[in-house]
């Protein structure tokens, strides 16, 4: 489990707007190119631990500021799939 946790957190740390657009399309989440760039800019290089509920909540709140609450809820659902 530790290996998977490290892989997910590493990917989050280096994610690009293109990656986000691909995942959004794959999981039917509505994200614009501009939003994907802002989200990737926020996430990149921060070393977040997506498996920590408190940290994930902070990340989702910041994403909600960028995309709005509806999209943030969808992204949270996706994060929950990756972390459970």
From TrEMBL:
Task: Specify the protein name.
Answer: DUF2624 domain-containing protein
Q: Which organism is it from?
A: Siminovitchia sediminis
